[in-house]
Amino acid sequence: MTTQNKQLVQRALAELIGEGGVAAVEPLLSDDFRHHRPDGLIRDKTEWLNDVGNALDPLKDMKVDILHILSDADHVILHTHRHLPDDGPSIAVVDIIHLADNLITEAWELLEPLAEADAHLTWWDR
Description:
Elements: H1 2-17, H2 21-25, E1 29-36, E2 42-44, H3 45-56, E3 63-72, E4 75-83, E5 90-100, E6 103-113, H4 117-120
Parallel strand pairs: 1-6
Antiparallel strand pairs: 1-2, 3-4, 4-5, 5-6
Domain SnoaL-like: 11-106
Organism: Kribbella koreensis
InterPro entries: NTF2-like_dom_sf, SnoaL-like
């Protein structure tokens, strides 16, 4: 099951940033899908698809490097570096994805601009 879950997550990412966009990802999400943003805001399936759909056009030339993809039972963790177009920042992203019945049911997303990473590594020196 873990290999199948990783393949589903990889397919969803490829479809999303490829030609398919949100229309190709929509059937891979459960009807009760929830997306948890770092600021605590939770989006339902319709809201998330709308938000991502609006963001995709300006990000159409974004490059995504998958650094790690780990799976444990019904969760997949995806660690990527995303290089935004037009000299935009590069960001590290960790997505924690919950799956059930071969669908993505929930996702948590953590983001950090790579240029700010050093500054964020000093919190324990206080």
